[in-house]
Amino acid sequence: MPRPCRCRRIRCNxxxxxxxxxxxxxxxxxxxxxxxxxxxxxxxxxxKGLYQEDAAKKMKISRQTFGNIIERAHKKIADVLLNxxxxxxxxxxxxx
Length: 96
Hints:
Elements (H helix, E strand, L loop, with lengths): L7 E2 L8 E2 L11 E4 L1 H12 L4 H8 L3 H20 L3 E4 L4 E2 L1
């Protein structure tokens, strides 16, 4: 039985929560959901340039958990960009 998911600390609050490729009608797009903790991991590691250990401390999670989150986020974003899908940012157990 897996351990229950702990609440993750995030500091970003996106102004926009939906992105789609230009020129493709919304009803013809597949949608990928990016959780708020995945967005925060992208912000800390890729935008701020923090090491995983430091970013994990800011989110109050282990480095291993942070690594799992960032890996999932990178795969989702790559899927969206390479396969022309819509990206919806929502959800997850987070604490601001």
